[in-house]
Please model this.
Amino acid sequence: PSGVKVGDTVEISNAGQLYWFAALSNTGYGSHPMDMTAKGKLVQDIVVNEDLMSKLDVDPETGIATVKDGQILRTWMPIAMVHDINIDYIFTGSLDGNGKTISNFTVEDYPYDWMGLFATIAPEGSAKNVTFKNAYLTTLGYSAGVLTANAYGPISNVHVDGATLSAPAGYHVGGIAGYVRGISDCTVKNVRISGLGYFGGIAGHSYGNVSNCHASGTLSMNGTQVFAGGVLGQQSKTSINDPDPVVSDCSFSGSVIGTNNEIGLGGLVGAAGYSKYERCLTAATGNAGNTQAVY
Model:
């Protein structure tokens, strides 16, 4: 948008401006230099792909969607993607969804690691108050979430209503994030996640507190020596000297399925270490395959 200066909050009212905000953060745009500190605020609901569901084939058994032959989708390059193999660009700004919805968000056959609206959110960065409806993401890489692959910063009040995430060669995938270090007040409904493992309805791997997060859907993994859980694939902490993180007031309903030599499946978490659990519920069914531990 014209007139935007470094430090301004960018008001985003349509898909074109959302893509402009990503370009500003990734490479710069026009006379605007690259700005990983950019601040964005949604001021209208946004539709990325009109009539997305009519362009997808959905498997009636698995619920996994694929793009119909001849259909072209408006796809996405994550904010704070890695530009150079030796340098990670990390988003230190903020995105306030302002209670708005991003519909039909699509990342198709992303060829690299770290897939989502963001690749990585820094400790001083943040994302909050946004809903995604009917998201479709496929990646050939490692780690993914509808919001972000990797969040060092806080995530709160993020919601996903309908999503397909496919990572046939990937680990650490969640309905909201691949990795989190603190997340609260989030929901994921009707999510379908498939790939190798470390899957969670909310996050693939959590290193911090998780509170008031609720998920429903189907998680299917076929890797070896991996985990999957309805809310979190794996819960642990960064350092042995850190306080034990707390998972509280969380729930899952749906299916967790393993079809190979997995290590652990769980209605709430796939693997839990150095953590506490309070007031959590699960109503999960699943196929344990050759899984060694079912929680």
